[in-house]
Design goal:
Largest sheet: 3 strands, mixed
CATH class: Alpha Beta
Distance between the termini: 38 Å
CATH architecture: 2-Layer Sandwich
Radius of gyration: 15 Å
Strand order of the largest sheet: 1-2-3
Shape: globular
CATH superfamily: K homology (KH) domain
CATH topology: GMP Synthetase, Chain A, domain 3
Structural class: alpha+beta
Order of helices and strands: HEEHHEH
Number of strands: 3
Strand content: 15-25%
Number of helices: 4
Helix content: 40-55%
Number of domains: 1
């Protein structure tokens, strides 16, 4: 169960990361469209687990490798954006959010 502070920091990180990714454009991510679908943060606010949804899902592997290579730079930009609100910028770990693929799979099964 997340506390109020964790929820507020998670929302701020999600908003800021979405803005950073949007500003880079689709070309930076192999032509894929990215959505920051959620952010979970550890109780001590030192680690942020960022869930990314990728469209088209075929490019998910390539996009995740690009994100992992650029984690340090993204954290730096995040620090520039949220430096006034947060004392410590959390470490970032990216995870693929496959919930959209799951919904699509269920819809296909229901059509049969």
């Amino acid at each position: 169960m997340e506390g109020t502070r964790q929820q507020k920091v998670s929302r701020e990180l999600q908003r800021s990361l979405a803005e950073i990714i949007r500003s880079k454009g689709m070309a930076a991510f192999d032509g894929a469209m990215l959505t920051v679908s959620g952010v979970r943060i550890s109780p001590d606010l030192s680690v942020a687990y960022v869930y990314i949804s990728v469209f088209p899902s075929e490019k998910a592997g390539k996009v995740m490798s690009i994100l992992k290579e650029n984690t340090r730079a993204l954290r730096g930009e995040l620090g520039n954006m949220t430096g006034k609100q947060l004392r410590i910028i959390p470490e970032i770990s990216f995870f693929l959010d496959s919930s959209l693929d799951y919904v699509e799979h269920i819809e296909e099964l229901l059509k049969k």
